[in-house]
UniProtKB/TrEMBL annotation:
<keyword id="KW-0378">Hydrolase</keyword>
<feature type="domain" description="Beta-lactamase-related">
    <location>
        <begin position="45"/>
        <end position="368"/>
    </location>
</feature>
<dbReference type="GO" id="GO:0016787">
    <property type="term" value="F:hydrolase activity"/>
</dbReference>
<dbReference type="InterPro" id="IPR001466">
    <property type="entry name" value="Beta-lactam-related"/>
</dbReference>
<dbReference type="Pfam" id="PF00144">
    <property type="entry name" value="Beta-lactamase"/>
</dbReference>
<protein>
    <submittedName>
        <fullName>Serine hydrolase domain-containing protein</fullName>
        <ecNumber>3.-.-.-</ecNumber>
    </submittedName>
</protein>
<dbReference type="InterPro" id="IPR012338">
    <property type="entry name" value="Beta-lactam/transpept-like"/>
</dbReference>
<feature type="signal peptide">
    <location>
        <begin position="1"/>
        <end position="21"/>
    </location>
</feature>
<keyword id="KW-0732">Signal</keyword>
<dbReference type="InterPro" id="IPR050491">
    <property type="entry name" value="AmpC-like"/>
</dbReference>
Amino acid sequence: MLRFNTTLLLVASFMVLGSCADNGATATKTASPATAKVIQPVPQVDSAVHAFMRKHNVPGVSIAITKDGRLVHVKGYGYADVEAREPVTPSSLFRIASISKPITGIAFVKLAEEGKISLDAKVFGTGGILGTTYGTKPYSKGITDITVRQLLNHTSGGWVNDNNDPMFTNPTMTADELITWTLDNRPLDNTPGTAYAYSNFGYSILGRIIEKVTGQTYEQYVQTEILKPLGITSMQVGGNTLADRKPNEVKYYGQQGGQPYIYNITRMDAHGGWLANATDLVKLTAFVDGFASKPDVLKPESIEQMTTASTVNPRYALGWMVNERNSWWHTGSLPGTFTMLARTSGGFSWAILTNTRTTNPDFGKDIDRLVWTAINDSTTVWPNQDLF
């Protein structure tokens, strides 16, 4: 059964390549030699990943799975760099694309909890958080009515992720320049709050709001105030070209003509720019998941607000896709990568990261099924240790 909606948010073409090597045998928790733990295999996960990689010619995959707050499986499969025969390891960094949005959502709920921002505050115009900082013309109809919450749940009224997505235009512009250009040239399609339209550009604006409110760059704020206190130190905003590849970052592979290094990834920071390994993503999730297994860094009422959808789309909350079973998730998709982060009501969470993407409609569905296959298999034995 397809449990999550894994609709691809961007469409591209690709060339065929791939490997199915299994690199989990030597993976260990980052710890002193005396406390390092050898990962116990979960054959049901391994076999599902191998089949997925063969079917879709995927060079490399990284997976981390938690159960009741414990990291029970973390493993790299295949190659981070095919040409160099460099294996994927649990420390390998991947572009996580739109999984960046839950990170931004967490940041805003934290700021609201601390009284530093109101989620219902206006963004533009007199009295708005950003005032008239952006734009050189009078704002078009509806712009000054947009609120922070509407940007978070994609009901701001415009700038949808389609062939005219502003975030994939004007690649030499900075984020600030692009916001001004878009406000000047792209009026809203709908009255704010009345329609759902998935908007990468809206999340770029959210990044600038964090900078205005905190006095730090978006990346600095998230790293300093959210990630570092949890012991997450490797997450960072990625670069644009192969030459900008960060230490431990994988290499990305297009299929059927896709070009993984043509976009301004750095400018995508708040909506699609983060690099992460799978372990760090599930660790962050474990501290905001609402379960008692680990102390949450957000209050229960903040978590509820973060996962409450809008009235116009009951499937999208503040940076998270949600359903009636109280499961949350988000996918990420760019040329050269497809990713998934999920938190289920049954106590499982997982991150799946790849370094390619295809246009095959089964690609997203198959990623969705990878961990569910093991969860629903009555013979699966989940290790009793915690690899965090």
